[in-house]
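TA notes. Do not distribute before section.
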Amino acid sequence: MIANPNHNYMSPEEYLEWEENQPLKHEYINGEVIAMTGGTIAHALVASNLFYQLKTHLRGKSCRPFIFDAKVGVSESGPFHYPDVMVTCNEQDKRAKTMINFPCLIAEVLSPGTEGFDRGQKFQNYRQISTLREYLLVSANQKMVDCFRLNEKGLWELSTYGEGDEIELASVEFRIPLDLIYEEVVFSEN
């Protein structure tokens, strides 16, 4: 990402106040405000399917899943992102009004335009969240999920899942077949 020298940067406080009144969502990174764009049908289905499975599994438990419109704050001063799906089990987040601060699981559905950022800078930002235990990168073009898990040594380990696999999400004590995440998804042929 290249900074525009003519861009008027906002403080975190200015962004949070301004963004509450915007019709579109905007992420905030190092003073820069970035408009969120729409995704494909496959992107929406994959995120919705994952959210639905998590919501069903977590019903009646202390954890809460969120989709699309819930903002996560990496710290009080940002960055602020809108993950496709996230789960929090933290009591403080139950009283949250504008953003989640203590997620244990975050999932981003990949698109060609954001994949590099989601794997790089965004993951670097998310790793600053002390409660985060798993980060999923879910392809919208094929049945494939990369799951980064924080191990007991404080290192992030990668597990890749494909056709016919089942993912174990330790942060929420849940096993989910990949086929349920991709239910009704039709991949475009390029």
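Switch to the second chain here.
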Amino acid sequence: METPKALEFSIDIFKPDTIPMSRLAQYMSELAALYGSEPLVHFKELRSGSAILKAVVDASATETVESRLRLVHDQAAPDDLKRAYQSLNGMLKSDRAVGEIKQAQGAVILAFPGRNTPVQKTIE
């Protein structure tokens, strides 16, 4: 049996003992939508450092989940994927945070600029 692959989503301004439970639930809901393959992605733990939400992806879904994450910024990305990314980034911006998804070994797969998202100015 293949080993599940771990993905970690970190939020720089929170720690496990400072993130409100309701906000954690919102982040987890949007992460589930972003990852897709929902029956094959499981919450593992909330780790210290920043608030680091660790999930494991069943081996049979690893390539599907990682492919989705690589598509986020592609013009042809599915609408549900774009919406989940934008929602997570908006939440981070609202919380004045930045975030990233990385492999347990440390390679960043997807960054969320959050508070550093450029503000688009309208010309009147």
